[in-house]
């Protein structure tokens, strides 16, 4: 079973319940001198999609806590149709990891190519800005299950690097480096 945290009576949700898809056209004012989408513009689009996904999951005000990973694998040319897909990959007590995939559509064939990806963390807060609990998550597809499992390792690594967790307590992370008997 893939539930996460004890969440005060809130039932778990699935990643599909938070899935957010934003499709837009790359305009001249959004491009650099090479006529590719500015990286900062793409980050803003990903942040908006992640924010909507986090709010759909938590039904709370949400704030960006961190941008954990961004991979600019392919440039996004002027005139491209770009689609940003965001969904909760794991929910912790008050925070949510959102995995974002960015696709570009070929102008002539319509074929979609994965251009970029990112992982953001959002925190749900109440009206005073105090962190508040969020529902757990139940992944359904194999990809959702992979992302769910990896999210805990990413969180443990982040906590260890920040000095907020002892390496010996990072059990999921340690399991990557220890041989199974």
Polypeptide structure, described:
With 181 residues, the protein is of the alpha+beta class. The protein has a domain at 15-139: Thiol Ester Dehydrase, Chain A (Roll). 27% of the residues lie in helices and 30% in strands. It contains four helices and five strands, in the order αβαββββαα. It has helices at 15-18, 39-58, 142-161, 171-175, and strands at 20-25, 61-72, 81-91, 95-105, 112-125. The chain has a five-stranded antiparallel sheet. A hairpin with a 3-residue loop joins β3 and β4. The chain is globular. Mean pLDDT is 92; it is low at 1-8.
Lay out the secondary structure.
Elements: H1 15-18, E1 20-25, H2 39-58, E2 61-72, E3 81-91, E4 95-105, E5 112-125, H3 142-161, H4 171-175
Mean residue pLDDT = 92
The computed structural class is alpha+beta
User: Which of globular, elongated, flat, extended, rod-shaped describes the shape?
Assistant: globular
Count of DSSP strands: 5
Strand content is 25-35%
N-to-C span:
24 Å
What gyration radius follows from the Cα positions, in whole Å?
Answer: 18 Å
CATH class of the domain at 15-139: Alpha Beta
Query: H/E order of the elements?
Result: HEHEEEEHH
Q: How many helical stretches?
A: 4
Q: Biggest sheet: strands side by side, in what order?
A: 1-3-4-5-2
Would you tell me which CATH topology of the domain at 15-139 applies? Thiol Ester Dehydrase, Chain A
Architecture (CATH level 2) name of the domain at 15-139: Roll
CATH superfamily of the domain at 15-139: Hotdog Thioesterase
Largest pleated sheet: 5 strands, antiparallel
Uncertain segments are 1-8
Helix content: 25-40%
